[in-house]
């Protein structure tokens, strides 16, 4: 980390930015030194992404000043920021899915992607960058849309490094990553900072900030609640109370009583010999009303595919599913929804949300029949019901008419969950429900999921965060490479044991 006498690489002062009806940033100061990892923390909607979009030239501030290497600059466009050496890896990756890896990396560069020689040069340089990022196996010619989320993020990183960068901004880069991919990311960050590159790092995971952060700035309601605190020495309760203005309990809610788990009622959902060629081998499981079952495994272990298959978004190659004693028509989302199943998917932007619609419509979309009055829609009822579901999840802003795309990442996630709360499912399939959700709302979300279970909903939960699976689930099914390697009550497992099982099996 730079010594205090070095002038900052970047100083942002008094940054203010309003959107219609919201002051997203209100006089924020931030300074970043060369070679440091500066973490930005704050609840959902606190203004983190907006601040870095100002720095990336994607938003123009209403007020405030940006000084870069001693000179006042105006970042009129993303290209202007790039040219200074400021690169951004966005929360919602902004790659062009139908172009190749190399074309994405060199999009907008002088090394144009047209022409044979140039293309070959672009591919060669892309291959070098991918190697530097620890992913030599990614083919520069591969279409980006066919890569995993982690792979796409590496491409985004390669694009950043294809410029002569002095500052890389990463907006929740670890949210879609497995533990070993997070290790790779941290190695990349360490390499960069060794070379004097500064990193602004946004994450909701406090343990990550302790691991790689030098300093922390905490945003709350568009203001800096604290600037430049030492990342490793500031006690967690202090950080949390700066973020939330209150003390948040980390405790998970009480588990279901033993009789639900062990003797239970009749299963509400039974899967027998369910298999999808190339994704997962035959699995059998049961979900009882009132219990939360966790699926643990790495990306690619088949956990999301199982959820999608149960929900009818994929057609299994073998097996059967019974819901409340009746066979479920497989490969049909309509049949699954009619039978009382709900899915909150992993990729909310592409899979779940109607980005051009209001919050209210996004929440009510699966319950519209409830608000139909003949040929017209009871909009008042729709809005009131949305408001109630949103309140349960502390969704911000508290305005059902706001467009969903104007919500912060974490609040969009809450809207997807609100949809299934409103619908009232028998079986709730949750894929990474707390991804991008801040620590305060996380505790509320855990309590809410447990409350739904207590009311008789059966929950099948996928999470990359092993403590979350163990803390929330009653029973855990551990998957590796598409096979069930272990099933046990959560209290019989611990984090190390699950890690062993998901990685290698011992
Ligand atoms: N384009 C926009 N139009 C209107 N409001 C916006 C727009 N972009 C952001 N906002 C609002 O600005 C506030 C700050 O949002 P921002 O995305 O910066 O939050 P964040 O700290 O990144 O949250 P998260 O942790 O959920 O990603 C929110 O109230 C959000 O709804
Ligand atoms: Mg954000």
UniProtKB/TrEMBL annotation:
Pfam families: ABC_tran (PF00005). The keyword Lipoprotein does not apply. PROSITE patterns: ABC_TRANSPORTER_1, ABC_TRANSPORTER_2. It is a peripheral membrane protein. GO terms for molecular function: ATP binding; ATP hydrolysis activity. One of its GO terms (cellular component) is plasma membrane. It is found in: Cell membrane. Residues 10-246, 262-506 form the ABC transporter domain. SUPFAM superfamilies: P-loop containing nucleoside triphosphate hydrolases (SSF52540). Its main location: membrane. CDD domains: ABC_Carb_Monos_I, ABC_Carb_Monos_II. SMART domains: AAA. Keywords: ATP-binding, Cell membrane, Membrane, Nucleotide-binding, Repeat, Translocase, Transport. The keyword Glycoprotein does not apply. PANTHER family: CARBOHYDRATE TRANSPORT ATP-BINDING PROTEIN MG119-RELATED, GALACTOFURANOSE TRANSPORTER ATP-BINDING PROTEIN YTFR. This is Sugar ABC transporter ATP-binding protein. It comes from Streptomyces coryli.
